[in-house]
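During the first year of the project, the team set up a workflow for recording each protein of interest as an amino acid sequence followed immediately by a discrete structure-token representation. This format lets reviewers and collaborators read both layers of information side by side without switching files. As required by the reporting guidelines, we include two representative entries from the current panel. The first entry is reproduced here exactly as it appears in our internal archive.
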Amino acid sequence: MDIFGRGSRGRNSNLDGLEEEHREPFSRRKRHAAKEKADEENEKISDKEEEDDNKVSDKEEEDDETDTDVDLPDSPTDPQVPWQDVPIKGARPPHPLMVTHVNQTHDLQRLRHAEAAINAEYQTSEEWLKIHSVEYMKLTLKDLIDKGKIGRLEPDHRTGKASQHIQFDAYDVNEFEYKLNLAIEMYTKRIKWLLQGSKRVFGNIHANRIVILADSSDANTGFGRLTAFQESLLHLIDEQVSQKKGIYLVSFGTDVDPLWPCVRDVNCRIIEEAKEFVMRMSPKGGCNLLKAMKHVYKLEDIDSIVIILGSVPDQSAELLCDYIYQMGVGRNIPLHAVAYDCSNHMTNLTLRSLAEASGGRYHCYTASCEEQIYTGTDISIILKEIQKVQDIINRIKEMRQGMMGSALISIMDEISTEVSKLPQSRFLPRPPGHDSPLKIEFQKFHPKTSVEWIRQHGLKAKKLDLYQVLAPNAYSYKEEFIPIIKKAVQSQVHEKAMVQFQWHDGTVKNVHVDMSQLFEYQKQLAATVSLYESRIDWLASGSRRIFGTVVEKNIVILVDMSVSNVSYLVHIQHSLRLLMEQQISNKEFFNVIAFGSATVAWRPTMMKPTAKNLQDAWRWVLDLQCGGSRNFLSAFRMAVENEEELSHKTTVEGIYLFTSGVPDQHIDSCTAYIEECTSGQGIKLHAILFNVDDYDANGAIPGRYANITRTAECLRSMAHCSGGRFHWIRETGIIESDDIQYVTSEVDKCLNFSRKVQMLVDSVKKKYRERYHHYEDMKALPAPEYTKLRALPPPPRQALKQIKAKEGDSDDEKKVSPQRPSSAKSLEKPLLSLRRPISAKDPMERVKNKKILRSSFFMDATKNKVGDGTGTVYKKYPETKSVRKIIARPTLPDHEDIMTTKEWIRIYSMSKLKLDLNKLVAGPDCKHKENHVKTLSKNVSAKYCDIFPSINVKGTIKHLQLLPHELEEYEVQVERVLRRYLKRLQWLLSGSRRVFGTVVHKKCIFLIDTSGSMEPYMEELKRELASLIWDQLYRQGVKFNMVQFSGACEAWKSNVQPATQENCHDAIKWTSRLEASGNTCTLEALKMAFADYDIDAIYLLTDGKPDTSTSMVLREVSKMNEDRHVQVNAISFNCSDNTANNFLRLLATETGGRYHRCQSDFDAQLFAHKLLSEGFADAEYPHLPDLEGDDLRRLGEEIALARKYIAQARQYRSLYNTKTTSTEKPQPKEKLTPFRAGRPRSSER
């Protein structure tokens, strides 16, 4: 058994078990026999190569014969030498005839120790300890115990248990202790050597081509320190730099002052120039280390950078380490950091961090405190080795006193070793039957994600959307000009028979309310809500509560087995058990990958989920152990870059990440790699976050730590960037689930539609009550008295001509007009004449008949008169309507109008500016037609079809009649309009409009969220509020008020105030005192805002959901705003929660306001700048970023449409070039005989 850990040889200790006592003499005799046999063979064989081979073969035979685990003591295995980069600059390829024999490698290995001893002064302490460490010299405590002999078992009279003793030879112990003392002496000499000369001040510089950065700031070279600093540098140049191959010398302060433009080879002249440069050094201000590092990293062919710092750098240690880490990727340039006579601990910490980040070394020199020198890297490593030796010597003293002789210690160690081989889950509480085989359930259907399920069972799919139901009976509000009365008339039908209702696009429509239809509609909504609730219950049951729905056919499960989850190992295993039992059986292929610092897969490739494979995977999961950090990218790469799976054309479709924290890699690196691997491959990453308690400070510390909110944001972005889903759970239940969120959004729609139906019904009842004031007192009318009808008396006899005259009447009159008494009133009402009077003028006559301007004159009377003697000259002819559409040249204003983007687009959209390309090319005369010719039995196109290019416009084949110069003119106009759009976009993103949007109302109140979650952004919010007050409110003369809300609400003033200079200063002073704390009482703030009847708009700025239910907030706002129509403009401030953003968007939509989202990492400014500076040559790059605010989104859609039209116009122009090329292609002609005058053509043949 191994108590103290295995050494480099991999040998077993003599404490491997009690039975070794019996086999020890036999194994020792075998080893002595093997030694003698090897010595005899060495004497017989003269060749050195055969001698080595025979030794190896004899050792292998001896191991086979003895069948023991004991290795030969004379065959130590050297530690593997790490790869070292070979300098190739200026190197020449070897000549083929200079290649030596392979045995030269063995000779070089034997000379390695001698070379190491010779080159000890050019080695670092790490390199020197590779052949001088305690482990290498086999002076560890394990090596000492291996020299002992296990005694026989003896009972202990006090405990009643068997005890065991280890016997050591006095000579072996003394020899071992002597070697340890020699090692201490050797280490002490090494430390003394490191404290000599310039190595005491600057440490041992071992690289060949170095860069020296000397701190020449005022703090380092002032106060009489410059002379001592110069002397130290001169000593360094003479002693160490002169032995190097290349040098580059730089002094830095506020600016960088290099001596040479590039690295110089060391010679006498270069050394003298370096000394002169050192003597010319003078104070240069601050200590801009980052600027000096940027300058140095541009150099090539350097091995190390020596930083000599005597003051605190201007930049922070985190910034410098991050820069060194990024610049060091792919370049092995270690930093040799020297703290020169500096008592500031921040300088020492910064230099130590820089050295560790680059894999270099740290040295500290202080003239006043000698103890600081021993904190350097080279000396501290040797001191640790000395401490190891002293611990072993103390153990030897204890052994001589008999404190190591108890067999109880060895037995306990042996038990602990055996226990360490057991799975970690054995030491945790487990549910009943945790180790039992799986009880696999075979699903009879293939589950769907909530997005796919909503497409089939959603409100729109079932045609239960309120706007779909009301659309047949909804009529738009119209206002038209009536030529007869010469004025505009508005539709008034809603006042009598209809109800005004706000549509989803913000317009107001007149709706006819059918009460019975709405009653049936509400019954269907209730049934749909019960269906959605059953779906939510199903999603929150079984393994779906933990993993969500597993829908893909080929899946890979990534399990986080980091050391932070060691207490939750059983929970992880139980979760995987439920998943394998309930959701894996109906898949095609699956695999499980566990990752910590290392990544382990259950199988190299995905396997079919048979019962045998599932049971085998479960047994593999039971043996998993937690350890290391979270190397997510390694596991993800193993899942997506499996060459064997790709060769069998089996690709993974879904990857389910089951983790409790953020990965080791940065979120940007993870998302970039995920997008690259999943784009175009159909692979989706689904992130499942199981929430654990806060990490214990005394427990395992993860590789990268983040609080639970940041962790959720990280995993949510990783899942959504690949089109996957995010699921967040803890022991109490589900915290967040994309699947459940989609269903709950449909439930919210149902509730919202139900409230609107109730509003419609209430408005109808209210209108009915207003029309009939005594509606409550009205009673049913009594039934009319029933009298028996009697036959009419017969008509008097009339003359035959009268009867014939009546027969001449129309048949219709006979049927409709029965005979009535003369005293009865006529049933027919006089109908208005539907025809226009003859005297009335036709209002469309001016449009139909164009005027012809002409002038008449009298002709000369002396000539023959023709007609009436007058003549007419036509000055203006009627213009014929042109079928061709000209390219409009719109006029766009240069100044920005204070209005919403919706209103601005109504005036300056592409269609309003008559630049809609589809309308320009889709005229009635452009249609492509084919007629069927019976004689040819086929469809034949017209001849003009071969002249004009054919294009597809919305599914219809048209002929392009716009000429190339017209298309070019169209491109010019659209580019001009697009530049105006981009300037408008830049204006919307400038100043306070970036955060608050455009303030277009004259009386408004601002609700500012100051809850605890706003604490990181309070300084930014205060600056933006000050900018809002001066930039928009004061400049536009807006009456305003402000309310801050957290746990309670506090208003700046009791009502809105004019934006005078005094009020603006007072408002800014009030906002500067805002502090973040408490909850988010959004509903109370809205109630306070609606209490002011002078306002016409509310601007709500928040970073998350309210404390109360979002449905209740929407319902209360709808009640308060029923008769007032106050617009609520919702502003999302640095909020990435989709649920909160959806609530704010719905709140703005319900009240007719606008939704605006402010993000810190917004790149729309860069997009607009690139387009304006680089032009519109590329229709796709740069890509339009996601614009989520209403104003930005509408303008972004118009920008995308303009770029699309430009690309189409260029494509249409290219069709003309293709047509010209095809028509100008020379056709093969027949060889004709030239015609000659005076001779017939036949004679030439």
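The second entry, processed by the same pipeline in the following quarter, appears below.
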Amino acid sequence: MSSGTVGGGGGGAGSSSSAGGGPGGAGSSSGSSSSNSNTNNKKRLATLNGIPTSVDDKTNDFLCPICFDIINEAYITRCGHTFCHQCIARSIDVAKKCPKCNYPLASHEHIVPNFLLNELITKHRLKGGGGGGGGGLLHRHKSSQPGDNSPQFHTGGTCGGGDANAGGEGDTLKHFLATESKKLSLSDVNVMLEILTQRKTLLEAESCAAQNRLLHEFLKHLLKQKEQQQLQIANEIALIRSDLLDVEKVLKDVQSSCPTVAEVEQSVRDEKDEHVVAIKREIIQIIDTIDNITVPSNRSLVDDTCSNVTESYEGFNLHGARRGGHGGGGSISGGSLSSNPSSFLARKQRMYQHFDDFVQCYFAARSEDLYFGKDRSCSSDSLGVGERSTSSGASIGTGTGIGGGSFSSDRLMGGGVHPSAAAAAAPSNASSQSNLDTTRSSGRSSLDTFRESLIKFSKYSALRPLATLNYSNDSNYVSTIVSSIEFDKDSEYFAIAGVTKRIKIFDYYTAIRDAAVDINYPINEMTCNSKISCVIWNSYFKQVLASSDYEGIVTIWDVLTRTRTKTFEEHDKRCWCVDFNEVDTRLLASGSDDARVKLWSLNVDHSVATIEARANVCCVKFNPKSSCHLAFGTADHCVNYYDLRNLKQPLCLFKGHRKAVSYVKFLNTDEIVSASTDGQLKLWNINSPPFCLRSFTGHINEKNFAGLATNNDYLACGSEDNSLCVYYKGLSKQLFNLKFSSSSTSGSGGTGGSSAAGTGSSSGIGNSSSRTSGLQSTDMERSNSEGNEFVSAVCWRKQSNIIIAGNSEGVIKILEIVCGPVKAGQTRIFWELGKFPAVAVAGLGDASKWDELDEIDGAKENVRIAAAAGVRALSANKIAEIAVEDMEHPQQAAEGATLANYKFQAFKSKEKQTPLPAVSFAEDASGKADWDRGVIIAEAQNFARVLMETPANHMTPTIFADTVKHRLGAANVEVVVHDEAWAKEKKMGSFLSVTNGSNEPARFLELTYRGSQDEQCVALVGKGITFDSGGISLKPSANMDQMRADMGGAANVVSTILALAQLKAPVHVKGFVPLCENMPSGTATKPGDVVYAMNGKSICVDNTDAEGRLILADALCYASTFNPKFILDIATLTGAIKVALGDCVSGVFSSNNKLWETIHEAGSQTGDRVWRMPLFKHYSDQMCDHNGYDLNNLGKGKGGGSCTAAAFLREFVPKGTPWLHVDIAGVMGDCSDQSYTGSKGMSGRPMRTLVEFVTKAGSA
């Protein structure tokens, strides 16, 4: 038996012999066949803990003589030596000779590829001889076969380790058993079996442990992650519950402040007046609506959520009006839009469509409270988690309760901590309560911010095309890309420019009106020498426009004359953009491929400054509220923000885009939006650089300049799928998407389609030229290569919801963002409906008959407002003829339409006058007589507006009298004009004292309309100061020009009698109008002078600026001689009445309660309300001075100026004569409460109230 032992030599129990034949191994058995092996092939000893294969030989056949690694990309020299290409190339560059034989190698042309060797090396690597490009060890291994005594070559292993060499050892063992097993004794076999069994058990245990150890690590990490998520969700739920309770409290407060349905129903049963019953029925409907909105406290939040989701998708379909063309006429219809849940349902559906986006927006807005601000109901102890990490990696403690580790951060973004934020120490317990109050206040603020975003996002429902134009109607142009679209300062005209080298000017209103015409011609056109990249209008000089082109030239144009007024040619390369400063309107900037931003002035022939950028400048934009701040985007992916007072370095450098920045626009003074060819828009704040506030995605933009425009909170940009995308700044996803139709399928571009949130109507795709952008200057080329159509230019009409967009085929679309139901006083125009090319639908609002708080007939007033809004909307679109429906109140519809269709332009040249449309009553409507009555009254009020608006030198007392005589004489009103001699004869010293200082002679009008046979007349007296300078007591110069309308009382009297005569009202009316000017001169009345009125009373003139009461005193005395039923005087008498009542109501002083009730009712019906003022004896006492004369013309007390003026006038009305005084200084002009008379200019109020009052009181 052999003397060798098995498993000896330090192999240890359970270890097998090394295949290399370690000491005591199988290979050491005496007399074995291995003793006959060649000594050169003897297996090397394994090194304890050594590096495997480190003692193996490397083959020298494929080694590079330079790097001593397997040759990679073999190249052979002229001298016949082979090296790696990289190695020999470097050697030639440095030494110019062969590294082995020093043979001269002057250049790379002296080496060629060694194809044969490359093939051999590839085959060698495929056999496993070498690793990837760096070479490796050559492994040799031959499978041992029974009876084969050949040695085994392999990478060495460790002694008894059970490693990767087990396969080789197993082969050796098999060989041993096949050749030597007969020599083993029973004890040897038992020892071997025991060792192998133990070895098997250990191997199985090791494998099982390795597998479960990995699973354990996975589960441990997963548990930690889910616990972190559980904590996050718990905190989010606590925040949501808190906010939900806050909102429910608001809704319950609203509900509790309203009467219950039962209370209103009980009052309905007790009420007999049918009008009041109708009002209360509507109140019940409103209460039901409020009750439906509020969430009962006993309902499950989960149930509420599920029901809301279900409701939002049931029975809802949003219809959009199709847009056709325009014509020459239009129609206005009204719709009563009372509390209707459809608007809320529409908004709710849009909210659910973007629910996930709103979730992100909500947590972004509430992140400060989520992580640092509010006490959470669950703690780290209950969850078993000590801390968690935000997305930015900052560790945040879970004890966010007060006194338990509250943290703060400079800025929170998207639900995580901003990279610049750092955790701060927890506040002390002493300051916990104040921090809690601050936190709650901050929470309400952030919740309000999110509420605002939710409302603004859901405000609009669709994009509606209004018109389609074409940049080039000439088919000879290969490319018709629209590069730029811009509105002028008044948004009347817009310019379109592009690669056809033409700038075309269109009239916006004409384009809308003529939308049905296939070809729309510009009103003006300029031609450039090169392709145009950008145009911009000056914000002050209406006719000035600037352009930049591909030759690097900036051109200033006079649009009216179509001429170049200035040319700047300092850019070395193509100029991409130009922009005017809106504050310093002579300053402009341009950016170019020469990596420069140049500043120009309209007063200088060369650039005034230059900013050196680090890359191509793609866009420039001035801050709209600053003269010295400028932003520009560059091809190095950055947005630069400069202060022009320091051009050495930018104030801010915004980084975050991955490709060139193609557009930069300002949302407001502090927020910038940038567009890039990385397919993103980014929102930045200049006060918190350099971090991006939000990224907007959803459009496609990889290589083209696709357009960008902003309008306060909304953004619009083009996309390379030939669509327009609209975003709201508070949400990253699209608000709307409208697809342009390909010209190959729809002629001039079609009308397109729109839908919410990125779902657009599909259309064909054709070919067009493209304007491309990239990182390098060659990529920046807006080339004319063939490609898919894309929207290339976008412009937002200022302060409106109108967008104009153009694409690479030259198709231009005028679009409107429309919202839900039309609100009261708002309009929406629909085109090509029935026989009308344009129909304006106006909201009528609440249909309540009476507004108790405002003391006005709400239904009638809403009709006036709606009719006025419709007329203005159609007139703005230059509709020439407008027909108005009755809207259930034809007279009020006529009043609103006629008063809105007014514009004072008597002193404009004919070519500059705005043509007004012809407004008529709809043919198929009922109530023509009421309509005609409304037109008569409104036209009479417009006559008063003209009298008041006309400049004083064109409306002297004489001209006023002649104008009235001509106009009222045609209406069968008797007009008598008295001169100063007549006034002296009547002893009107008070009246004549006012005209002493003027060269214009005074006049006194006596008007008579006899619509009934009554002997007693109604007397109307109107103050007629055609210009009031204040006399010797001179007024301040500010706003003195408005004193041309100080005869507003006279204008009201004249227009009232005109309307009564045209209406053939059954009343007998006389009007008395003293006319004069109040001017300073050597003959003017002086303060302290005493004059005598017609009734003999003496008056001390304390202030010559209180002249209106002086002329009214004599007029009242003269009117009293006719023994009238009552006297009403009206005057722009005191500024104090405007202080007391504002500009929405006239003040009335009356000695007769019945007359007051009648005029109050008349004001409520006509919308021109009046308010009763006190007329106490206390005010009369202030006007009397017993030191030698009867009256002062100025009160001696403090305040109450309008009351003392009325008390002065009462002294000239005989006792027992019913009398009213109406002070209209507050409503004279620039009134904000009536949209149909406009907020600017003279109003002619309250003439309609006088007509209603005289008709009722005079015929009683």
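For the second entry, the following points were noted during internal review. The chain has a mean pLDDT of 77. The chain has 27 helices and 53 strands. Both points are flagged for discussion at the upcoming steering committee meeting.
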